[in-house]
């Protein structure tokens, strides 16, 4: 089997270990493994240039390992040091087209065992990620299907958030029709149409937001939480020194998991999350009452965490600056705002973001190898410490149901969809 792996959407720590696991598990199981650079954008663009001539391999590799490398191996195309091989060829697709990049015009690249050496502890995604507008169009998905068939790939692992996995599921659902279109326009042969009648897909949830339903943890969320925790630990000492208040804005898009867990793990006086806005409307007095109480019992510092998607019960955004103004004007606290931004997303994965993608990456490959045409595509999740396969459609549907409940201001449902054991 020929399998390919891509990372899509916002990067997250743990994507490199996920790609590494897919590559190594695939090779171990006898597959040819490819990486697709720049996410779906690379899949739509495909390969427009021939593989580069071989470079000298600087190291003596055991023959059985070398046997895995195709003409297109990154190892042969890029320099081969101890560090991550792809790094030297990295750059976005635009740059590749403009400059004489090492992988000019090539987005779908065969990889070998050593191409992913050293990737376990590295942040971001070396194979690049993008939010592709082209893949959202029917023409884009047709080009993507054509490129997969041209490269002889019949199994795809997508590592990304809910949008990326929805895209994967859509590609799979449309696949028979895309194959028909390619055949009728003579872009593929009848033999190819028969051989590639089904596309097998496995989804790995790579997102710092931990916003995917039916799985306990997404790849990247533990690292982002750790970053937030460290940042608030740092803020705590300066806040206490000056008896100040800090409003800390954290990421998470429409999901409050990072904010809530940061509140527990780093300690916060008040937390704003999208799924459970403050009960009173307006919310200002409710927050001030809590903080006033904490100050009265002798707290020298105040930490308020605001999820970036926070809002009140009428869905009016609650922003960090507004919270600061309230703390300053009503409680007369000397207040600062810290927006953690992309520091939450970058950097080395914590241990959990190495273990989880490794176990899940291996199962993603197993799921492709075991897939039958009548089965759904699976998302590889984790529940109560067990790696599980969950039908991708179900996970996507429930994730969208949370957003719909928030939109309908049905916060009890939003919370119980996120956590069935949550009590109002
Ligand atoms: O989905 C991951 C995430 O980091 C969100 O938490 C945040 O809202 C968004 O991506 C930021 O996106 P960008 O990096 O495109 O600004």
From TrEMBL:
Subunit-level organization: Homotetramer.
Main location: cytoplasm
Name by which UniProt lists this protein: ATP-dependent 6-phosphofructokinase
GO molecular function, one term: ATP binding
Pathway info: Carbohydrate degradation; glycolysis; D-glyceraldehyde 3-phosphate and glycerone phosphate from D-glucose: step 3/4
Catalysed transformations (reactions): beta-D-fructose 6-phosphate + ATP = beta-D-fructose 1,6-bisphosphate + ADP + H(+)
Activity control mechanisms: Allosterically activated by ADP, AMP, or fructose 2,6-bisphosphate, and allosterically inhibited by ATP or citrate.
General function of this protein: Catalyzes the phosphorylation of D-fructose 6-phosphate to fructose 1,6-bisphosphate by ATP, the first committing step of glycolysis.
Entry binding sites for substrate: 207-209, 244, 251-253, 308, 336, 342-345
Protein localization: Cytoplasm
Cofactor requirements of the protein: Mg(2+)
GO BP term (any one): canonical glycolysis
Superkingdom of the organism of origin: Eukaryota
Sequence positions that bind Mg(2+): 162
Residues engaged in binding ATP: 10, 131-132, 161-164
UniProt KW keywords: Allosteric enzyme, ATP-binding, Cytoplasm, Glycolysis, Kinase, Magnesium, Metal-binding, Nucleotide-binding, Transferase
UniProt domain Phosphofructokinase: residue ranges: 2-49, 103-368
Record-level GO cellular component terms: 6-phosphofructokinase complex; mitochondrion
Coiled-coil regions listed in the entry: none
Residues of the full protein shown: 1 to 424 of 827
Family (UniProt): Belongs to the phosphofructokinase type A (PFKA) family. ATP-dependent PFK group I subfamily. Eukaryotic two domain clade "E" sub-subfamily. Belongs to the phosphofructokinase type A (PFKA) family. ATP-dependent PFK group I subfamily. Eukaryotic two domain clade 'E' sub-subfamily.
The keyword Ribosomal protein belongs to this UniProt entry's keyword annotation: no
Biological source species: Calocera cornea HHB12733
Enzyme active site: 209
EC number: 2.7.1.11
Annotated stretches, region: N-terminal catalytic PFK domain 1: 1-424
